[in-house]
Design brief:
With about 475 residues, this protein is an alpha/beta fold. It is built from eleven helices and six strands. The two termini are about 155 Å apart.
Length: about 475
């Protein structure tokens, strides 16, 4: 048989001894840490479902891990019926997987009407499927089991109870014989587990408990790590019967509120940071604008200074221009006077030019005349030379031949008559005439050179 944890529920009327029986079955002494509280009278010490975990050692040493759940007692005089049922229902959170065994604990004696109603309540709560999982544990039994079997047959009320719960029944004396009671309880529990093949009783209530735990686990997991410990601890203790759903809900809500406040603070802080960032940005923009304004101011001052400097320079320049204008005016006046003088000079030059041109023309005529005189003198000399040669030939009794131009010949013929006459007289005329002619030629050439020089000087002046 597989060793899984088996869940056992103890229920019954207040004062029936279910908490004591649960401590005995769970191998824990009453009053010890972790034990179920045991009450006396009609007020239940169990206000909500609680659980303890223990082991049952079966035949062959097989260990059966078990969880035993103690529930609120029915008929508690301090609680209204609806509160009793609400407290009873909290066991579901301790057994989300379902129940293997239900032990309905009832004190031996005459069954009261409220006790019979409690049995019906259990039957209705678990449905028809619980019958094979539910056994009756009858407490305060100091006699042999046979005695109680015979008495039950005589009681229709007890008979109905025994017939309805088909898991079996045991008779125990928890006070005087706890070890015997423990053995009977363990045997009964193993009998029901084996009878149902370890299957658990389940219904909508258990399914709701599973769903509830899953949902609340998601809520706990959604919390930040530092807020998760408290609700997680309560959720774990809910399964042990140490805490209630209301406590779990209050813890989750409280931590959710803390987280909500944190988120709100974070949003406010983020908003404050954004506002501060905006202010910083605005301040930065204002500073930037101030810097730009200062830069513009500095630039304006620079321009103003430059304009002032330029104004001074302009005034200086204007003064210089005025001085220059005055000088130019004076220069203009001087130039006008000079122009007038030059105009007079030009007028005079024009007159001189005309006179010079007349001089040039006269000199040109003089040069031509001197050149002609030179030519005439040279022709005369040549003529005399011819005549001299002829005369010389005649005087020698010979014939003379010469070559000469027409002018020379003409002049030679004229000179020949003179030469012949002179030769006849026996005078040296030819040589004298020739010498005189050469002097005349030279003089004419000198005149030509002189006239030419004068002409060149006059042209030079005319060119200037």
């Amino acid at each position: 048989m597989a060793c899984t944890r088996f869940t056992i529920l103890m229920c019954g009327s207040t004062g029936a001894g279910k908490s004591t029986a649960g401590n005995i079955a769970g191998n824990i002494a009453c009053g010890q840490p972790g034990a179920f509280k045991v009450g006396h009278g009609t007020d239940s010490e169990t206000k909500r479902s609680e659980a303890i975990d223990f082991n049952i050692v079966g035949p062959g040493g097989i260990v059966y891990p078990c969880r035993l759940i103690d529930t609120i007692g029915f008929g508690d005089s301090e609680l209204k019926p609806e509160k009793q049922f609400e407290g009873f229902s909290t066991f579901i959170d301790l057994a989300p997987g379902g129940l293997n065994v239900i032990c309905y604990v009832q004190k031996w004696g005459r069954l009261k009407s409220d006790e019979q109603e409690a049995m019906h309540l259990v039957a209705e709560a678990f449905g028809a499927g619980q019958r094979t999982h539910t056994a009756v544990v009858i407490t305060h039994c100091t006699k042999e089991d046979g005695f109680y079997e015979e008495e039950i047959k005589k009681s229709s009320a007890w008979s109905r109870v025994i017939d309805y719960f088909q898991g079996g029944r045991i008779y125990i004396d928890s006070q005087e014989q706890p070890e015997v009671a423990r053995t009977k309880l363990h045997q009964l529990m193993l009998h029901i587990i084996q009878k149902n093949n370890s299957k658990k009783l389940n219904n909508a209530g258990f399914e709701e408990a599973v769903q509830y735990r899953w949902q609340r686990q998601q809520l706990v997991n959604a919390l930040p790590a530092d807020l998760r410990t408290g609700p997680q601890t309560i959720l774990d203790e809910l399964q042990q019967g140490k805490k209630s759903r209301s406590e779990l809900e209050a813890s989750i809500i409280q931590q959710q509120l803390v987280e909500a406040r944190r988120q709100e603070q974070a949003r406010n802080l983020k908003k404050a940071c954004e506002d501060l960032q905006d202010q910083i940005g605005q301040t930065a923009n204002a500073n930037q604008r101030a810097e730009e304004a200062n830069e513009k101011k500095d630039e304006a001052e620079k321009r103003a200074n430059a304009e002032a400097t330029r104004s001074v320079e302009l005034r200086t320049t204007n003064q210089g221009l005025e001085d220059e204008l005055s000088r130019a005016k004076k220069q203009s006046e001087s130039t006008s006077a000079e122009n007038r003088r030059l105009a007079a000079e030009v007028a005079k030059g024009n007159a001189d030019k005309e006179s010079l041109e007349q001089t040039v023309r006269a000199l040109e005529a003089q040069v031509k005349k001197s050149e002609q005189t030179a030519k005439d003198a040279e022709a005369s000399v040549n003529g005399w030379a011819i005549a001299s040669a002829v005369a010389t030939g005649i005087a020698a009794g010979g014939v003379a031949f010469c070559t000469a131009g027409a002018s020379e010949v003409a002049r030679g013929a004229l000179a020949l008559k003179t030469v012949v006459a002179a030769v006849g007289a026996g005078a040296p005329v030819v040589l004298g005439v020739r010498k005189g002619g050469e002097e005349k030629i030279q003089k004419a050439k000198n005149e030509v050179e002189k006239s030419q020089k004068l002409l060149d000087d006059a042209k030079k002046k005319l060119g200037q």
